[in-house]
Amino acid sequence: MSKVALNTPAPDFELADYTGRPVRLSDLLGRNVVLVFNRTFL
Predict the structure, then answer these.
(1) Contact call for residues 9 and 1 (beta carbons, < 8 A)
(2) Number of helices (H) and strands (E), helices first, in the chain?
(3) pTM for the whole thing?
């Protein structure tokens, strides 16, 4: 994976939402986006 330089637009990517539907970052252009990467420790 290549590094992203500071002050550049985020690369477009796709993740599943809480219902399992795919959502692309570009679909949310102009909206505030919060990404949460939850890590579980056992």
Answers:
(1) no
(2) 0, 2
(3) 0.56
